[in-house]
Design brief:
Structural class: alpha+beta
Family: Belongs to the inositol monophosphatase superfamily.
CATH architecture of the largest domain: 2-Layer Sandwich
CATH superfamily of the largest domain: Fructose-1,6-Bisphosphatase, subunit A, domain 1
Helix content: 25-40%
Bound molecules: adenosine-2'-monophosphate, calcium ion
Order of helices and strands: HEEHEEEHEEEEEEHEHEHEHEH
EC number: 3.1.3.25
CATH class of the largest domain: Alpha Beta
Strand order of the largest sheet: 4-3-5-6-7-8-9-10
Largest sheet: 8 strands, mixed
Protein name: Inositol-1-monophosphatase
Radius of gyration: 17 Å
Cofactor: Mg(2+)
Number of strands: 15
Strand content: 25-35%
Mean pLDDT: 96
Shape: globular
Number of helices: 8
Catalytic activity: a myo-inositol phosphate + H2O = myo-inositol + phosphate
CATH topology of the largest domain: Fructose-1,6-Bisphosphatase, Chain A, domain 1
Distance between the termini: 36 Å
């Protein structure tokens, strides 16, 4: 039976937009949200807004495509043997969201046979919907996305990020090498947005010492359609546990991969 990718693409865009508008209403009343720290008093926070939006998105997806698999940051994984697996983050950038910083979004991605095939990343504060997929191109609102043509790290900014736990030992050595090469870094707290910015040519690339699949599957679908390169992020247990992550325009990818060294694709 042929897969209906275009209905799924439409649904991803519509749900990302709708969830982002709901998120915006919650954001404006964020002082009333209950907040918890995952794993003790960590920087890893979650609020009632994250849970509410994930429940909403998951219910809508499963209503229309009950056979599809699902992975979400807040409610876990199901039916991973399906050909189509939705990979979503209801709020990517929760720390920003809760501190009143505008860098957060809703991220809805779809894997088809294990490959990122559709992505919708909605940023309601800037009125931007990044969307695209295999055979559909990649867009921000109605504008086509294209990665940077830069050949040199000095030509722009590189997104970076790290988690408070695994992988953080690789972060400072990398920053040192980046600065030595004349590069400069940006961290905005949302992996989905930073990946979309690479696809849009706003960032030259983006390195994260350990990212989760729900942060990046949507963005990876956009990147594939906008000429970007990425590492083999989904290898091993990447879908459920995460891996080191690098996306970049072709002109700087190798240079950054070399700075990171073997930890990028080590198991
Ligand atoms: P989140 O907001 O959905 O948890 C990469 O930086 C990813 O790590 C982000 O996409 C973000 O996803 C998460 N993140 C950002 N800042 C964080 C922080 N202070 N603590 C834990 N996770 C964070
Ligand atoms: Ca989180
Ligand atoms: Ca996230
Ligand atoms: Ca999240």
């Amino acid at each position: 039976q042929p897969l209906d990718l275009s209905s799924r693409y439409q649904l991803a865009c519509q749900l990302a937009r709708e969830a982002a508008q709901r998120g915006l209403r919650l954001y404006r009343q964020r002082d009333q949200l209950a907040v918890e720290h995952k794993g003790g008093f960590s920087q890893d926070v979650v609020s009632a807004a994250d849970r509410e939006l994930e429940v909403f998105i998951k219910a809508e997806l499963m209503k229309l495509f009950p056979e599809d698999g699902f992975v979400g940051e807040e409610t876990g994984a199901q039916r991973l043997d399906a050909r189509c697996i939705w990979v979503i983050d209801p709020i990517d950038g929760t720390a920003c969201f809760l501190h009143g910083l505008h860098n957060w979004c809703v991220s809805i991605g779809l894997l088809v046979d294990g490959v990122p095939a559709i992505g919708a990343v909605a940023d309601p504060n800037h009125d931007e919907l990044f969307h695209g997929g295999r055979g559909f191109g990649a867009w921000v609102n109605e504008q086509p996305l294209r990665v940077s043509e830069a050949q040199d790290l000095r030509a722009g900014l590189l997104g970076v990020g790290t988690f408070y736990a695994e992988g953080k030992q690789h972060f400072m050595p990398f920053l040192g090498k980046l600065l030595d090469a004349g590069g400069m870094f940006l961290r905005n707290g949302s992996g989905a947005l930073m990946t979309a910015y690479v696809a849009a040519g706003r960032l030259l690339g983006y390195y994260e010492t350990c990212l989760k699949s729900w942060d990046c599957v949507a963005g990876l679908a956009l990147l594939a359609e906008s000429g970007g390169r990425c590492n083999n992020f989904l290898r091993g247990e990447g879908l459920l546990k995460g891996n080191p992550y690098l996306v970049a325009c072709p002109g700087v990818y190798e240079q950054v991969a070399e700075m990171i060294g073997p930890s990028l694709d080590a198991d």
